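Deliverable D4.2, example record:
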Amino acid sequence: MLQLNFSPFPILESERLRFRRLTNEDAPEIFALRGNPETMKFIPRPLATTIEDALNHIKIINDKIDENQDINWAVTEKGSDKCIGLMGFYRTQPENFRTELGYMITPEHSGKGYVTEAVKTLLDFAFNTLNFHSIVAVIDSRHIASERVLQKVGFVKEAHFKEDFYYNNEFTDTVMYGLLKRNFTK
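Output generated by the structure prediction step:
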């Protein structure tokens, strides 16, 4: 079984981005992300309606880190400490050396290649430092931009479930992408 230890918290960097631990000071940015109908359009979770919702989300993330279960980072542009995105791994299955990738970025920072750059950095860490064998990404089939990012970094479509998820009074399709460590290239 995979043994995870996120202490000390791993701060990562890519060419243009820095990945650090979320703090309560990030609550306004997390509220802006999780309270925005556009950024949450393909994420079947209730919108954050208060700063308290954002603080609770940060606490849940940091509790999982402290318990060595899952890990998520606040993403910032190098030279700035302002959180522009939230990315990491959750629903981790250490017994299967497997985890799930999740990511979101502010609308004003999308379209700049940041998500692709960030995902490559996180995959490198997950496969080569944490020693995961496989990583899955589960997306709404309508989320074309997310699908493009996954394909760009080497994920392959493993399943398409028709109308398998009911949220906000509608059935939606779920698409599952996967990547094995042996198929990952930086």
